[in-house]
Each structure stands twice: as C-alpha cells, then as structure tokens.
C-alpha cells in the first residue's frame, strides 16, 4: 500500500470518529447529566463553550399535580427554548429524599427514550432521540413523557432536568447552550404544614420579657426556611422591621423571643414556612395579644466586629444585622447572601472582588430600617 492510500484510509477513519463524536448528542447523552445530586454533572461536560444557564433560553417541566397519588400515572411536558434555535435536547430523572429512583419514567413516542443504563440509587433517565432533536417550530421543542408515581408514599420527590439549545452545526462545542432546572412534587405526607403550639392569645406580654414561640411542621424535606415576624396592627401587616428570626434548619421548632418595646393593644405572631418548590409560604398566625411598655424604643444599630475576605467573597461579623441588611464598601452597596445566623454574620459572594491585597476600605452595614453601622476600616492581607 502506497503512502497516499494509507493517508486516505487514516483520513476516512478520523472522519468517522469525528462524526460519531460530533453527532453523539443528537442521539442523546449518556445517563447522569441532569445536574441532580450524585450525577456526573450536566450537559456542559460536552457542550462546554458556554457555562450552564448563561444563555437567553430555558428548560421547563409542566403538567405536575400539586400532590402526587401513589401509583398514579402523569403525562408531563418537557420544554427547551431559545429564540432562533431549531434543534434541542433534554435529559430528566426523578429522585426521592434519599437520592434514589422515585417512580417510573416511560417514553410515549419515538421522540424520547428511557435509557437502559441506570444511575446511582437505580435512578432512571429519559431523554430525546435523534427523531426528537429537531423541532417543528423555531425557538422551542416540547417532549411528552409519562411519570408513574411510586407505589407507596415516599414523601417529596424532585425532578431534575437539563436542556440543550443547539445551533444544529453538529459539533458539541460549537455555540450550544445548556440549561438546568428542577421541580419539587409533594405527596400527602410531604406537603408542608405549620401549626403554632404555643399561642399568646389574650395575654399581655411585657416589653423586655421572654416568650417561647413553639411550632410544629410537616413535610420537612420540602422546607426551605422558617420566618418569624410580629404584627402590632392586629395582623394587618407583618413588616420586615418586625422580623423576629429567620431559620433554615427545618428541625428547629422553637425560638425564645425578647418582646420589643413596641406597645400594642392587638399584636400577633406569624410563623411562615417557605417551600423549596418555590410555592407560596405556608403561614400560621397567633391569636391577638397585647404588648405593654413605655414605647419610644428604637431599633438597635448594627455593629461590626470584624471583616475578612477569601477570593471574591467578603465576610462581615457583628450584631444587630437585620434580614435584608446589605454590606457597603466605601459607600457602594454590595449584595449579601445571608445564611442561618444573618444577625451576626453577613456574606457577599462578590463583595471583595475589587479589594486587592494591601487595599484599605471602609465597610459599613445598612439595615432595611436605614440604621447604619459605624465605618469599619479593613485592610486586605496577602492570601
């Protein structure tokens, strides 16, 4: 065989391999790319020109009931969308609180397929086929799938799904955008409820006294946060300035409240439970009670004890920080990412981005009621 013939054969083999790689996503990805906990990741593992969820499109799931019934089958719609695109893909899985397979996924037509290979916890994956990649409409593609709920009530389940909006070039790394999303679905036992165990109705609470607020919840796996506020106008309003506590641990069921010096003839306490599903918070409101005191009490001023930085992140410790407080760097407001103990620690993901080693800046904390801390001088040390 002469050299030119060998080169032609090598070129043909290379072309075949390249084509197989380039068009692999048309047939659907391997299992484990929905972005679910325990998965291999999401589709940016191959389509990596753009970071996940950085494009102008989306992936959504429609057709979920408010609460699933064990053993019942539901027809759902998965939609990937991005203006100007004509080829799309998706992958979806459903897991329970233990990250194992929840229910059964079924393909309804030739546009989708359930992979024979399973993931961690025996989880299933359903995705597009080659036939289902091309959209009859520019800008979006919708697939119809079936999910049959588990035979028994396993509590809240979560759908994780990823979508691909491709430019149809056939190359995985050529201007394809990947989107991920999730949807929580409650069961009869997984539904979130909250009940006030202690109720100060009819009592008079003295300013400065302690009152233990007790409550109970159900559906803890779907609880995102628990927020306590009080009202001084018989429950007409529960302003942010009347925040008692914000809690992210669903196992917490009591809080010792120091009654403020805000006299009221009809006050009420509200415990509002936020859901991971993003639905409206579930409230429980006490009966009316009175607050006695001299009045004229003012909100405590935030005080900064210390400041530190790590990469772009900025950390401010202190006291009297209110929910919704912001960090200011040289008078410029920075976003905060408050965690459990927001009253004593504020975090800003990008607050230190422009504070270089050796720079000295003034840090202040501004509460929603416009009380501001004294400036705290911070010099960034070498890392």
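-> sequence recovered:
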């Amino acid at each position: 065989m002469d050299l030119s013939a060998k080169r032609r054969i090598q070129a043909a083999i290379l072309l075949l391999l390249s084509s197989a790689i380039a068009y692999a996503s048309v047939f659907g990805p391997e299992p484990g790319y929905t972005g679910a906990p325990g998965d291999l990741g999401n589709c940016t593992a191959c389509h990596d020109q753009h970071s996940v969820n950085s494009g102008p499109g989306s992936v959504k799931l429609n057709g979920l009931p408010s609460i699933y019934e064990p053993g019942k089958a539901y027809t759902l719609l998965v939609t990937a969308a991005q203006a100007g695109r004509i080829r799309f893909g998706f992958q979806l899985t459903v897991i329970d609180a233990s990250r194992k397979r929840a229910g059964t996924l079924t393909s309804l037509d030739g546009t989708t397929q359930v992979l024979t290979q399973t993931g961690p916890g025996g989880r299933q994956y359903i995705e597009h086929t080659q036939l289902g990649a091309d959209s009859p409409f520019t800008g979006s593609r919708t697939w119809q799938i079936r999910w049959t709920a588990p035979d028994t009530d396993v509590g809240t389940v979560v759908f994780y799904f990823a979508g691909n909006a491709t430019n149809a070039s056939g190359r995985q790394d050529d201007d394809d955008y990947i989107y991920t999303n999730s949807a929580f679905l409650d069961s009869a036992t997984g539904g979130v409820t909250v009940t006030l165990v202690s109720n100060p109705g009819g009592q008079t609470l003295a300013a400065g006294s302690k009152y233990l607020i007790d409550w109970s919840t159900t559906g803890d796996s779907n609880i995102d946060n628990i927020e306590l506020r009080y009202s001084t106008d018989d429950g007409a309003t529960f302003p942010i300035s009347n925040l008692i506590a914000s809690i992210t641990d669903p196992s917490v069921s009591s809080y010792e409240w120091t009654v403020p010096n805000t006299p009221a003839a009809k006050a009420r306490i509200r415990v509002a439970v936020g859901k991971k599903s993003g639905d409206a918070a579930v409230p429980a409101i006490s009966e009316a009670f009175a607050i006695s005191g001299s009045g004229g009490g003012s909100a405590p001023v935030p005080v900064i004890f210390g400041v530190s930085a790590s990469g772009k992140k900025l950390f401010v410790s202190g006291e009297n920080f209110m929910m919704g407080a912001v960090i200011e760097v040289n008078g410029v407001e920075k976003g905060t990412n408050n965690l459990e103990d927001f009253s004593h620690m504020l975090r800003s993901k990008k607050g230190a981005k422009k504070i270089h080693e050796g720079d000295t800046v003034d840090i202040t904390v501004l509460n929603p009621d416009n009380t501001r801390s004294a400036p705290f001088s911070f010099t960034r040390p070498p890392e």
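Residues 3-22 form the longest helix (20 residues).
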